[in-house]
Amino acid sequence: MREDKETPPIRLPSPAKTTLIVGLALAAVALAAGPFSGSGPADRYVPEVGKASEDRGEMARDNCRAKDADDRPLVCVYGDPRGKRVVLFGDSHAMQWGPAMIELARRRGWRLHTLLRAGCPIADVVFSPNCARWREKALRRIERIGPRHVIVSTSVGNRYRLRFGGLSLDRAASEGRLRAGMVRTLERLSRIANVAERNGVKLIRDQVTAPFVPSDCLDSRPRGRESCWFPNRRQWAPGFDWWAAKRTGFLPTIDPVKILCERDRCPSTRGRVLIYRDSDHITATFARSLTDWFGERIGF
């Protein structure tokens, strides 16, 4: 599609390539419950511990996220070109669920549009000029798409420290403004005509952040997976994402911690599958294995 100031680029992935990658990854997940094989820690897990950081999924491969000085909302489209329009909107913590959302789009006949920018809060707050311009353009783009549903996800971690009155706030002082800004964003999304219905906006709540890089821990302690567990504790609980969803009436949210963690602690692996590719992002392989779990909770 032609690219200009009013029409952001739309990236359409190769169906054959996507099908092949999905098939291979699902086959890998199917092996997760099997016994360990090989002689070293690298080949004990899927993906290998040394390659976990590269397991980012189709949306990263298709360059679906805006970055650096580019404030244009890059749009990728997956699924049925004539299907019900669904938008995935957020930062890299939205993109991490892309493998499951792409598979749901294929199964359910959605036309899935993605509007993503790493390191940029979708909450309506003052963070950086490029982020603010991107957010406004992305919201206008969503209004033009006219989706039936919008799936939202955002990091609530330490990175989102705001500025106010020329001063840099710490993360704790930023929380109230992030909550108010997230309320404004969700309310704006709810006013889009086609999503002004029950379950029109669905929030995937942010997950627990690991205090270390799990793949590094597993690599250094190949026989001690139990030592690579970490507390099931949200640092900024309940999180401005959940708080805003409650304030605007978009509950229940989808909480991946319920599948990622036990009551008090979180593992680094599920069988042979690595859960985290770094301290706060999920591997594409594990995200793809949650397709059915998300499907039961997505609400449409």
Question: Quick gist of this model?
Answer:
The chain is an alpha/beta fold and 300 residues long.
Task: Describe the fold and architecture.
- The chain is α/β, with parallel strands linked by helices and 300 residues long.
- The chain has helices at residues 15-30, 58-61, 92-95, 98-108, 129-145, 171-190, 214-220, 240-248, 257-260, 284-289, 291-297; strands spanning 10-11, 65-66, 75-79, 84-90, 110-117, 149-153, 163-164, 167-168, 201-203, 230-231, 265-266, 269-270, 273-274.
- Helix 4 packs across helix 11.
- The two termini are 29 Å apart.
- The model is unreliable at 1-9 and 14-39 (pLDDT under 50).
Main attributes of the structure:
300 residues; two-stranded antiparallel sheet; Rossmann fold; alpha/beta
